[in-house]
Amino acid sequence: MRVGVFGASGYTGLELLRILIRHPRFEVAVVTSEQRAGVKLGDAFPSLRGLLDLTLEASDPALAKQIDFAFTALPHSASAPTVAALRKAGVPVADLSADYRLRDLESYERWYGRHAAPEWVGRAVYGQPELHREELRSSELAACAGCYPTSVLLPLAPFLRAGLVETGQVLVDSKSGVSGAGRKLEAGYLFAEQDGNCLAYKVGAVHRHVPEIEQEASLAAGAPVQVTFVPHLLPTIRGIATSVYLRPKRRLPASAARAVLEAAYADERFVRVLPEGATPSLQSVRGSNFCDVNAFADERTGSLILLSALDNLVKGASGQAVQCANLMCGFPEELGLLEAPLVP
């Protein structure tokens, strides 16, 4: 199947290419980059030299004729018109931007500004296979889940579905590598600013992933869920480590909490419930499509603590997009994704 990667020069676009090169059913036929149009892929990115003999092109609706499936790894707002044009041409799309994740247009425009293709809002399936697998099988537009939301929802959703925890205030602390901000030149992401540093940012319900987390958490709970979310930047390139703090409706020992996760993910290929007492680490998931999770109980306060770790560029973005595409195309879900984490 011929596929196109629109926005191939960003971090998620490059990660898509790294995965698609080894995918046995997808053939990369089109790669686009507005800034590097006309440049051979291997010249622009030496890591791909000798692996893909393609030239980067400017995005054009006519490219739809050359592909059977599209991955759009474009910035928020910029992705919407490209996705709309591809869908109008009959090309199924896995979109990695936030442009179609929120089901409500008013909510989207409150957080992101004016939508370039409002007629398509609400028509995508939220692209997290562990939550929406059957819907994705019959969908032609997946709005792939964000990296932070994936790290929160995978450990949290089973407890919300079971009605085991209070939904009035879910507390989330997440720490991400700097690649989550994308490839851009800003003082806050310079090596001299980040090395040996860790800082919170966008504190106080101002991070754009808050409505996405609350939307999907509320669907899982069948009732409104409110989230207090504090993200941090880590002095590392890849990875997200997340802690979720909950108040159980009744006292829940750690063994029972782990049993909830084990029951939810017993048949899932990419969510690994760790042994009792083991905490997820970035090194154990780096470069892979795995999300490691575990649950702990604070016997003194009665609080429940959920932990997760994933690679923000793989399970948090490009790997998850390929997982969605596999489902949409009728392929085995794990195709092209069973690569061991990069250790050390």
Q: What structural class do the secondary elements suggest?
A: alpha/beta
**Biggest β-sheet strands, sense, barrel:** 7 strands, mixed
What share of residues is helical?
Answer: 25-40%
Order of the strands making up the biggest sheet = 8-9-7-10-13-12-11
Mean pLDDT: 96
- Superfamily at the CATH H level of the largest domain? Dihydrodipicolinate Reductase, domain 2
In terms of DSSP E residues, the strand content is: 15-25%
Ends apart, CA distance between termini: 34 Å
Q: What CATH first level of the largest domain would be assigned?
A: Alpha Beta
Low-confidence stretches: none
Number of helices: 10
Which terms summarize this structure?
single chain, 344 residues, alpha/beta, Rossmann fold, Dihydrodipicolinate Reductase, domain 2, 2 domains, seven-stranded mixed sheet, 10 helices, 29% helix
